[in-house]
Amino acid sequence: MRFVVVCGAAMSLRCWFLQLLLCCSALAISFHLPANGRKCLREEIHKNVLVTGEYELSERPSGRSHLRVTDTAGHILYAKEDASKGKFAFTTEEYDMFEVCFESKLPMGTGRVPDQLVILDMKHGVEATNYEELAKVEKLKPLEVELRRLEDLSESIVNDFAYMKKREEEMRDTNESTNVRVLYFSIFSMCCLIGLATWQVFYLRRFFQAKKLIE
């Protein structure tokens, strides 16, 4: 779904900023968690980024559902036993793949139960920052708050491009290194083939001389 903001000929800063926010806004996702099942969501997030999440699970007559947020190293960033509704927040220390897992546990002998509806709303970076609270603490005016939000959004975009440039440089260096290694390997293979062919010529020459087939 795409949102469009219609503005007048003289577009104000407020209208422009609203367009950026709507383009970058994220919607909550929902899915069904089966009984004694496990479902996980993964997302790559940059370093030093605030991540917030709000979740809600539909009621189930029996059993419990657990929530766990981990990174690729297995560090538990958030865990909640018997999760039903709540919020979590953490700040990333490194660029990594983070995993949010919901797991359903039912006691033995429980009959068939309906799937549990899970609603998850995750935000990170500018989306996760509470600018209303920031305005109260720093006593900022509405325009100053929007400028701060726009500044953070611009910084986030610049950081994304810087990371993409860094990855491109790393991939280019890897490609050039691989090409050099392939070239050296090709030269080595050719030298081995030439050496083997030369040895075969001298070996066959001695063999035929021993058989007195050639002088």
Task: Give structural notes.
The chain crosses the membrane at residues 182-204. It is found in: Endoplasmic reticulum membrane; Membrane. It is a single-pass type I membrane protein. By secondary structure, the protein is of the alpha+beta class. The protein has 2 domains: 27-128, Jelly Rolls, CATH 2.60.120; 142-215. 41% of the residues lie in helices and 27% in strands. The protein has 3 helices and 8 strands; from the N terminus they run αββββββββαα. The protein has helices spanning 13-24, 131-138, 142-210; strands at 29-33, 38-45, 50-57, 64-70, 76-80, 85-91, 96-105, 116-124. A hairpin with a 5-residue loop joins strand 4 (64-70) and strand 5 (76-80).
Mean pLDDT: 81
Number of contiguous helices: 3
Give, in spatial order, the strands making up the sheet with the most strands: 1-8-3-6
Order of helices and strands: HEEEEEEEEHH
> Which CATH architecture of the largest domain is right?
Sandwich
- Helix share, percent: 40-55%
> Roughly how many Å is the radius of gyration?
31 Å
C-alpha end-to-end distance: 88 Å
Membrane topology: Single-pass type I membrane protein
InterPro entries: Emp24-like, GOLD_dom
Protein name: Transmembrane emp24 domain-containing protein 10
GO cellular component, one term: endoplasmic reticulum membrane
